[in-house]
Amino acid sequence: MIFFVLLLTCIIFVHIMRDVYSKYLKTSLILSLCLFFCIACKKTTQNETEEEVDSEWIDNQGHLYEYGICVDSLDINNNVIKNGDSPSAIFTRLGFTAKMTDSLCKASYDVLDPKRLRSGMTYATISKQDSTATIQYIVFAKSMTDFSIIDITEDSIRTYEYSKEIRLERRYMEGVITSSLWNIIKANGADPLLALKISDILAWQVDFFDVKEGDSFRVIYDAAFIDDTTELNISSVEGLAFIHQGKEFTAIPFIQDSIREYFDAEGNSLRKAFLKAPLDFFRITSRFTNARFHPILKRYRAHHGVDYAAPVGTPVKTIGDGTVIAKGYDSKGGGNYIKIKHNSVYTTTYMHLKGFGKGIQNGAHVKQGTVIGYVGSTGLSTGPHLDFRVHKNGQPINPLKMESPPSDPVRPELRDSFHIVRNFVLAEMDSLHTTHKCTTENIEPKPTEYREIE
Question: What is the DSSP letter of 228?
Fold first, then answer.
């Protein structure tokens, strides 16, 4: 598969250069590239063979590893953090003296933040396999991949962080929607968060609250794994084609200015300057109007925003890049609020928040999609919702009718490179689609299927 990919790239490159270089140069180029790719394939095959043995668990001498520690002659005991536990309470419960507990707390402070310990988090002790069962290591799990390790095998205490190796697995899926994109992906055993990835990429092209029965999609994506079998998440979408109401939308990943973005087949950015909405899931309960009957004040007054009902704690995202110019509590009814200036023309305001996102303060620079706060019901509010407002040149406008300019397309000097990437992605999707069709001709088809790419 890898050799085929490299050879296809070579052919495409030579095809592009045919009108620029002479026949002699082109022949030399073919021979050079083929030699390079053959060497690369040989090296890749060797690496893949070596990686079949997971060095995290068993090395080539047969030693067993856990958290990067050789545990051949050690016992591992797993524990769960209880409500109200602190590092000192945990160390004391493990049998350490008061003096040793104090030393452990001081030594581990940089890798083990007491404020971040939560009930239900796990930790493990790694001990000697003898009558003393002396603890050699204490491992605190910060996530499924990241760990804080306290090493007490020597006279001095050593602390460090350890991360499990993440392995990416290329996959392909295609299907026809019968209810919703989320349901069709979940029903067939794939991570339903793939639906969120797809909807994020095509947020400005497709209204995913209005997908129709019969809409279809094809997608190539990378799934992230640890320990060979534990799937973490959807790492990235590597190619996408979505047919909505008879119109096809294509997404090609391409790096420009060190930023990975998605473009259509012509090289136009799929990302707009602003998101369509500051929430992923919501229900509109009140629209932009000059005369709305206020449910608390019991009188009519202008409502120059849109109310999005959502559960308390739902993340609120900034719709575009900008700078926080106001953060605080609006005593006139807005409750906790944030105001962001995006450029010389647009500002946005987010009100009735339960709280603010990490690092959000006056003067902070934020990127599109950054979580700036959480849905709440502060101020004059009858229930949890977000009051979202947009001002253009100082005047309030209807957020639902705002037209957002697109981000920059692929630059002219990068067009040739983009075309190579685009042609390869489209050819790969077509090839996988054909393979999928051929393998299911004599089998009763399912609404959607995915398979790993060898």
Answer: T
Residues 18-38: pLDDT tens digits? Answer: 443 333 334 343 434 444 444
The DSSP output letter for 128 is E
What's the rounded Cα separation, in Å, for the pair 172 and 165? Answer: 23
DSSP state letter for 58: B
| Alpha-carbon torsion (281, 284, 287, 292), positive or negative | negative
Tell me if 117 sits within 8 A of 166, measured CB to CB: no
Give the closest residue to 198 by CA, choosing from 229, 230, 243. Answer: 243
Q: How far apart are CA 400 and CA 340, in angstroms?
A: 18
**pLDDT tens digits, 183-212:** 888 887 888 889 988 988 887 788 776 788
Residue among 251, 168, 297 nearest 421 (CA): 251
Query: Under a CB-based contact definition with an 8 Å cutoff, are residues 227 and 246 in contact?
Result: no
pLDDT in tens, 227-239: 878 888 899 999 9
Residue 32, classified by CB atoms within 10 Å of its CB into exposed (0-12), middle (13-18) or buried (19+), is exposed
Among 314, 242, 243, smallest CA distance to 282 is for 314
256: pLDDT strictly greater than 70: yes
Bridge partners of residue 170, in order along the sequence: 222
187: tokens are 């029903």
User: How many angstroms separate the most distant Cα atoms in the chain?
Assistant: 84
Q: State phi, psi for 284 to the nearest 5 degrees.
A: -75, 125
Q: Which helix (H) or strand (E) holds 415?
A: helix 415-439
